[in-house]
Design goal:
Layout: E1 11-17, E2 23-28, H1 31-38, H2 47-50, E3 56-63, H3 66-77, H4 81-90, E4 94-96, E5 99-101
Antiparallel strand pairs: 1-2, 1-3, 4-5
């Protein structure tokens, strides 16, 4: 019998830039699916992004617990637009295919 490897669920906090230049912050376990939802290609997108399409992923962080992801989502939502831009453009560790990425394991 083979060993089953346990892959812990990952939670992502993300920021998308809307067509009107505003930012939307959210939390998910599946970023590609969530982007499709925000852009109207799948049901259940956020009401905020519904009229501000298309959206573009600008930033995300990875967490190992929902609790920490929720806490971080709340923190980012309290930030000003300028603070979010500093987070997006100033503190990223790597750029991948034009998407800015910062990974946190908490």
């Amino acid at each position: 019998m083979g060993h089953l490897s346990y892959m812990p669920k990952k939670y992502y906090v993300y920021i998308v830039r809307c067509a009107d230049g505003t930012y939307y912050t959210g939390k998910t376990i599946d970023i590609p699916r969530r982007l499709l939802q925000h852009n109207g290609e799948l049901i259940n997108g956020a009401r905020y992004t519904n009229t501000r399409r298309p959206v573009e992923l600008m930033f995300y962080e990875e967490y190992l617990t929902n609790r920490f992801a929720c806490q971080r989502e709340w923190e980012i939502k309290q930030m000003t637009h300028a603070d979010k831009e500093n987070l997006i453009y100033g503190h990223n560790e790597k750029i991948n295919n034009g998407w800015l990425h910062r990974s946190q394991k908490a």
